[in-house]
């Protein structure tokens, strides 16, 4: 109450309503060690209802994590360790960034998948993933997608607590949310239990039942009261997202028999209670490490693999080992080249896992050496996500955060719209999730405007910290995969449906220069009078357009528009005295920094159904259109 009141901002209802439950979680149930927040066999706890962040911060402070009372006093202040919603890598003990409701549930499903994969390979891993979610989390579609998959996969080490207080921001949930959540989760294949969050006997019985069920995730409904203990506002919607007010805080402290003249008061008995459990966690880690040491002696090969997974780095040598080779002038779609690269990576990077949203046959993500991950096969590496794009992206983020894996997910570029909130969070958390998008342009053709991406490249490029790669041929595609695996942040690899020629690169160091945002594909013998910037399939289009041209033209394949914008090589690639022509089968937005709008060949409308080449020609993406622009710019 004091932290939220001091900040004049926050959500006191959930922290008060779940206070007893929090004491049970961090004082009895969870296996953790605040002296080593990253102990690998710790239980994972996710606060999906991230608006209740002060609840989590209070418990982390009391449990001995590196979060002082001064940090608590700085709640919601700039640069504090206690931001408005929990942020991954910002506060010790926070397992993932939450706030956008439902995301935490989906991340936790990713944690549970990762835990089951690792435990099947390494017997030293055995822990649970717990989630606390509210009504809003259950309303969001991402939680439905993720929960459905979790039930299908029988993730028995996943336990979801539902803070069912029947209150949302606008009032009682009766006005919007009257579904039977119990029946819903039973239909998903979960074990459904109920407990009283204010009764330890009830909570312990529910957890016991959840842990005894090895074949189902558990959904535990907690019938709670928002702002429980508040003097006059207990049960009111107004406590969801606004401070109680000084008068109410004082009255509540009196009701709870706490001193009213002391801010941020913590009784000594409370400190001792949490300290005792934290010390038990330290002992638990020590005992676990002894088991790991003995296991390592008995399994030296597995121990070496375990250490390698913890490092989880992709060395530079990977660029030169077993990378597929392609013949010049060979016509191959970049989605097929991507699949060829995936086949090679399956042995080069054994901890690479991932899958597609029911489109593996179209975006070519099947890996012949991988079996499917399933309820019966925890050693499988191909994850069948089904038609659940949003859940897929958030689950993959969870796998990446958990550690020990390189993980990707895939669908058509146009459906990145369904995934954008999760992609944004991957960028915000700076985690190296790989998003593979095929069918990258209007060349999709007959499926028509609903399946032809137009604004999607610009939309993805607008996300800070997101690497967006659109390779122009098979060779670039292999490098795009390496760039994604080397990256410390998220990457989108955008590949074509149609065949593209493998072209000769003028730049002998093009593999390295791709990492700067682009490289010279074609360089004239004379000083360039025009520079063409292009991506993906439009690079080969530009190369065809300049054949026989009397104008000396440089063609630059732009691998990453944002990287090129900031690259030290930008002036080297784009001389100031030469006009620039941009060619991309998408909206012009984002390219205006390189050239005036009238110098951009783009698409500023939705597509239409027809053969890909015919659609492209109709929309002005053609050799003829490029030649006309060259003539206009060069006289």
TrEMBL record:
Assigned EC number: 2.2.1.1
Positions bound to thiamine diphosphate: 51, 99-101, 136, 165, 240, 415
PROSITE patterns the record matches: TRANSKETOLASE_2 (PS00802)
Sequence positions that bind substrate: 11, 240, 335, 362, 439, 447, 451, 497
Gene3D superfamilies, per database record: 3.40.50.920, 3.40.50.970
Cofactor comment text: Binds 1 Mg(2+) ion per subunit. Can also utilize other divalent metal cations, such as Ca(2+), Mn(2+) and Co(2+). Binds 1 thiamine pyrophosphate per subunit. During the reaction, the substrate forms a covalent intermediate with the cofactor.
Catalytic activity: D-sedoheptulose 7-phosphate + D-glyceraldehyde 3-phosphate = aldehydo-D-ribose 5-phosphate + D-xylulose 5-phosphate
PANTHER family: TRANSKETOLASE
NCBIfam families named in the record: tktlase_bact (TIGR00232)
UniProt name for this protein: transketolase
């Amino acid at each position: 109450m004091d932290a939220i009141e001091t900040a004049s901002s926050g959500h006191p209802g959930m922290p008060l309503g779940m206070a007893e439950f929090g004491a049970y979680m961090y004082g009895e149930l969870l296996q953790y060690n605040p002296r080593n927040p990253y102990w690998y066999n710790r239980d994972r706890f996710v606060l999906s209802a991230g608006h209740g962040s002060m609840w989590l911060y209070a418990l982390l402070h009391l449990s001995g994590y590196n979060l002082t009372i001064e940090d608590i006093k700085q709640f919601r202040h700039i640069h504090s360790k206690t931001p408005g919603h929990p942020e991954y890598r910002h506060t010790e003990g926070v397992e993932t960034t939450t706030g956008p409701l439902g995301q935490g549930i989906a991340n936790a499903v990713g944690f549970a998948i990762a835990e089951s994969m690792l435990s099947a390979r390494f017997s030293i891993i055995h822990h649970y993933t717990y989630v606390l979610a509210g009504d809003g989390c259950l309303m969001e579609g991402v939680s439905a997608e993720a929960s459905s998959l979790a039930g299908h996969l029988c993730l028995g080490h996943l336990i979801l607590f539902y803070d069912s207080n029947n209150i949302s921001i606008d009032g009682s949930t009766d006005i919007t949310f009257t579904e039977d959540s119990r029946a819903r989760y039973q239909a998903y294949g979960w074990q459904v239990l109920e407990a009283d969050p204010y009764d330890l006997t009830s909570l312990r019985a529910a957890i016991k039942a959840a842990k005894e069920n090895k074949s189902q995730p558990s959904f535990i409904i907690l019938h709670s009261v928002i702002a429980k203990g508040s003097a006059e506002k207990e049960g009111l919607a107004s406590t969801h997202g606004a401070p109680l007010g000084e008068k109410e805080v004082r009255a509540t402290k009196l009701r709870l028999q706490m001193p009213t003249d002391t801010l941020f008061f913590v009784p000594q008995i409370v400190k001792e209670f949490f300290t005792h459990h934290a010390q038990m966690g330290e002992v638990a880690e020590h005992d676990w490490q002894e088991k790991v040491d003995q296991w390592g002696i008995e399994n030296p090969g597995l121990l070496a693999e375990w250490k390698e997974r913890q490092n989880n780095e992709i060395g530079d040598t990977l660029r030169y080992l077993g990378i597929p080779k392609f013949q010049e002038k060979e016509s191959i779609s970049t989605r097929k080249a991507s699949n060829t690269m995936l086949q090679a990576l399956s042995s080069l990077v054994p901890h690479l896992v991932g899958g597609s949203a029911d489109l593996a046959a179209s975006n070519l993500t099947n890996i012949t050496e991988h079996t499917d991950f399933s309820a019966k096969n925890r050693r499988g590496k191909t994850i069948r996500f089904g038609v659940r794009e949003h859940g897929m992206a958030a689950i993959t983020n969870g796998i990446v955060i958990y550690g020990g894996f390189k993980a990707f997910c895939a669908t058509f570029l146009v459906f990145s719209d369904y995934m954008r909130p999760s992609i944004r969070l991957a960028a915000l958390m700076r985690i190296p999730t790989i998003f593979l998008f095929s069918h990258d342009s209007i060349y999709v053709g007959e499926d028509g405007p609903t399946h032809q991406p137009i604004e999607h490249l610009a939309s993805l490029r607008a996300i800070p910290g997101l690497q967006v790669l659109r390779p122009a041929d098979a060779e670039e595609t292999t490098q795009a995969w390496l760039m994604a695996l080397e990256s410390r942040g998220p990457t989108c690899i955008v590949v074509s449906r149609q065949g593209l020629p493998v072209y000769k690169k003028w730049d002998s160091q093009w593999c390295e220069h791709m990492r700067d945002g682009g490289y010279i594909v074609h360089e004239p013998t004379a000083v360039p009078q025009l520079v063409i910037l292009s991506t993906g399939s439009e690079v080969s289009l530009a190369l065809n357009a300049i054949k026989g041209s009397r104008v000396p033209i440089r063609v630059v394949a732009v691998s990453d528009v944002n990287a090129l914008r900031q690259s030290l090589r930008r002036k080297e690639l784009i001389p100031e005295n030469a006009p620039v022509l941009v060619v991309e089968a998408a909206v012009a937005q984002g390219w205006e920094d390189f050239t005036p709008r009238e110098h951009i060949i783009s698409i500023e409308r939705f597509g239409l159904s027809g053969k890909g080449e015919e659609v492209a020609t109709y929309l002005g993406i053609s050799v003829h259109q490029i030649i006309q622009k060259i003539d206009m710019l060069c006289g």
